[in-house]
Amino acid sequence: MSVTGPAAVSFRGVARHFGPVRAVDGVDLDIAPGEFFAMLGPSGSGKTTCLRLIAGFEQPTAGTVAIFGEPVAGVPAYRRPVNTVFQDYALFPHMKVLENVCYGLTIRRMARRQRESLGREALALVKLSGMEDRRPVQLSGGQRQRVALARALVVRPKVLLLDEPLGALDLKLREDMQGELKGLHRRLGLTFVYVTHDQGEALSMADRVAVFNEGRIIQVGSPEDIYERPRTRFVADFVGGSNVIDPQVASTWIGADRAASLRPEKIAIIAEDATPPEGALSVEGTIGEVLYHGAMKRIELTTVAGRLVASVPAAASPSTGEGDRVRLVFRRDALHLLDGP
Amino acid sequence: MSAQAIDIGRPRDGWLRRFSDVLMARRGFYLLLLLVPPLLWLGVVYLGSLFALLTESFFSIDDFSGVIVREPTLKTYSELLRPANFDIIVRTASIAAVVTILAVIVAFPIAYYAARYARGRMKAAFYLAVMMPLWSSYLVKVYAWKLLLAKEGAIGWVVDRAGLSGVLDAVLALPTIGGPSLSTSYIGMVLVFLYLWLPFMVLPVQAALERVPARLIEASGDLGASAGQTFRRVILPLALPGVVAGAIFTFSLTLGDYIVPEIVGPSSLILGQVVYIQQGTAGNVPLAAAFAVVPILIMGVLLTIAKRTGAFDAL
Q: What CATH number matches the domain at A9-237, 3.40.30.10, 3.40.220.10, 3.40.50.300, 3.90.79.10?
C-alpha cells in the first residue's frame, strides 16, 4: 500500500471498556484511503464496537481515533465525515423510501428539487428506481438493505461503515449483494469498513482483513495471508476451520516444536493400505461423522494426531463410511507453523 | 441412553382434551366462544345505553308540565345553541384544550426520561410515581388540592413566605382566568385537572417513545442531524400516536368531568355539571342527553382530524 497522506481511519492504543468488560482493548490500526477493510471476528470480539468508535456512537476509554488525520475525540457522530449502514437497516418507518434516502440532504437544508434528484440517483445506483414512494414496511429485506446503502451514500461519506449489512439476508441474496457491494466500492473509490462474523464474506470482498478476538486484533493482512498463513491457533480455527496440529505431533512430522495449521481441503483420503505419494506425509485414521456439503464432503477422523477434519470433493471421495480405516495424506508444505504452542 | 426402554405413555384423554379437539377442528366455534361474552357486554350494555342516550336527546320536555314528550324532535338540540348553553360548551372545550396542551408539555419530558434513560430501579420508581395517584380516591385528591389552593392554603403560604404574593395577586388579577383565590379561579381548576389526568398522558407517550428504536436515533445522528433535528424529524413523529392517545384521554376526561368544577374553580358551570343538574334537579333528561352528545361529537371530530393528519400511520 502506497502511503500518501494520512490514513482514512487510524486507531492508536484504542480501548473501550464498559465497566469491567473490555470490549476493545488496545487496538492499533491504519485503514488506507479507498481500501475495502473487513473486521472479522466472533460476536463479542470488539469489531462492532470499533466501528461504533469510528462512527462516533462510542467514545474511547483510552487512545485516539483519527479520520483522515483529524483526531475525532469528542466529535459527535453528526459532525463526522463517515456514514453507517446498520445491520437492521434502521430505516425511518414514517418516511417513504425517497424521504429516507434524502434524509441527510434534508438535514443539510438542500433545496427539494436538488435533493430529490440526488436521492433518485442514489436509488438508481442501488437498483431501486421506481420504489421512491414505498414505505420501508412494504420492502423486502434485500430492498431495505439497498435503501440503507443509498441513504448512507447520498451524503458522500469519506468512509462508509457497514455493520454486518448482509447478516439478515438469505444465502442467495447475500451472495448477490456481496458482488454488488464490491462493484460499488470499485466504482465509488470510497473507503469501506465492513464488519462481519462471516469469514467467507470477509475473504471474498475485502482488500485487507483484521481478525478480532476478545477486544484485540489478532492478525491483519490480505485475505490470502489470513487464510494461508494464520498467525495463531485462533485465526487458523476461526477462519476456515483449520485443523491445528499440536507441537509434539508437528515436531515428529516436520521437526518444529510449534503448533501448525492444516487446512481440511489440503488433506486427501486414500485406502489404508495404499502407498502415499513420494515426499507426502501420511497418518492413519478412523472415519467418524461425515457431513455432505454438496460439492464437498466434510469428514471427521480420529488419528494419532488427534481429531482431524478433511474436506474432500464429494465426487472423488471413496465410498467410505463411519468406522472405516483410511489413510490421510498431505504435502509437507500444507503444514503452516503458528505462533505460540 | 435407553430411550426405547421406557414407555412415557400418552397424555390421558379427559373431556377437556376432547373439548379442545372440537375447538381445534372448528375455528369458527372457537372464535364464537371467545367473542360472545365481550360482544354481549359491548353490544347490549355499552352500545345499548349509548343508543338510549341518543334516543333520549331527540325527545323534548313539555315546558308547562315538565313531562317528557316521546316524539322525535330537534327542539332540545336547538336549546344547546342558546347563548347561555353554547357558552358552557365553548368554555368546557377551551378548558379541556388548555389542560391537554399543558399535559403534553409537562408529560413529555417525564415520559422521555422514563423511556430513554431510566433503567432498573429508576424505572420502577417512575411507574410507581406516575401510577400511585391513580390508586387513591379521586375525591380526596380534589379536596386536597382545594386546601392547597385556598387563600390561606399551603401554596399561598409558600408564595407569601417567598415574598412573591405580589406575583400571585397579579396572576389572580388577570381577566377570565383569575379570581379571588387560586381555588376559585380557572387557573386552579386547570391545575387540578392537569394533576388528575397527567398519568393518562405520561403512560401512552412513554410507551410510544419506548418503541422508537435507539438505532433510528443513531442513524439520524449518523446522517448529520443534531439532537434537536433528530427530535423534530424522528422522535416526535414516531411518538405522535402516543401523544394523540394521551390527548384523547386528557381532553375527553376533562370534557366529561363534573366533580372538579364543583369543588375548585369559579361558579360558572361547565358541561359535566350541566348534565348532572339537568338530569337531576331540573329533571330535563332530554337536554342532559343532548349535552352528553356534545363531547361525543367533539371527540369524533378530533379523532377524524387526528387520523387525517396521519397521527395513526405509524401505529
A: 3.40.50.300
Let me know whether B157 and B263 are in one domain. yes
Confidence of residue A161 (pLDDT cuts 50, 70, 90): very high
Cβ atoms A272, A285 nearer than 8 A: no
Q: Which of residues 64-83 of A touch B (CB under 8 A)?
A: 76-78, 82-83
Q: What is the bridge-based pairing of β-strands A306-313 and A268-271?
A: unpaired
**Is the Cβ pair A90, B215 closer than 8 Å?**
yes
Q: What angle do CA A155, A160, A165 make, to 5 degrees?
A: 110
The Cα of B214 is separated from the nearest Cα of chain A by a number of Å equal to: 9
Burial (CB < 10 A; 0-12, 13-18, 19+), residue B68, is middle
CATH assignment of A242-337, among 2.60.40.60, 2.40.50.100, 3.40.50.300, 3.30.470.10 = 2.40.50.100
Residue A56's φ and ψ, nearest 5 degrees, are: 100, 10
Strands A9-18 and A21-31: antiparallel
pLDDT-derived band at B314 (thresholds 50, 70, 90) equals low
Amino acid at B59: F
Find the helix or strand (DSSP H, E) in which A103 lies: helix A97-107
For residue B65, the one-letter residue type is: S
Q: From residue A155, how far is each of A316, B53, B230 by CA, in Å? A: 52, 60, 17
Q: Are residues B128 and B259 in the same domain?
A: yes
Q: A329: pLDDT confidence band, cut at 50, 70 and 90?
A: very high
* H/E segment holding residue B54: helix B48-57
Write down the pLDDT at residue A1: 47
What are the tens digits of pLDDT across the range A277-296? 888 888 999 999 888 888 88
- Using CA atoms, how far residue B263 sits from A159, B102, B225, in Å, is 65, 21, 49
Q: Is residue B95 a contact partner of residue B254, using CB atoms and an 8 Å limit?
A: yes
Burial of A81 (0-12, 13-18, 19+ CB in 10 A): middle
The angle, 0 to 180 degrees and rounded to 10, between the axes of the packed helices B120-135 and B83-116 is 160
pLDDT tens-digit series, residues A17-31: 999 999 999 999 999
Task: Give the C-alpha separation, A146 to A124, whole Å.
Answer: 10
A76 vs B contacts (CB less than 8 Å): 221
Contact A101, A37 (CB under 8 A): no
Place of cell 406516575: B130
Helix, strand, coil percentages for chain A (3-state, nearest 5): 30, 30, 40
Interface of B with A in 210-269 (CB under 8 A): 213, 215-216, 218-226, 229, 233-234, 237-238
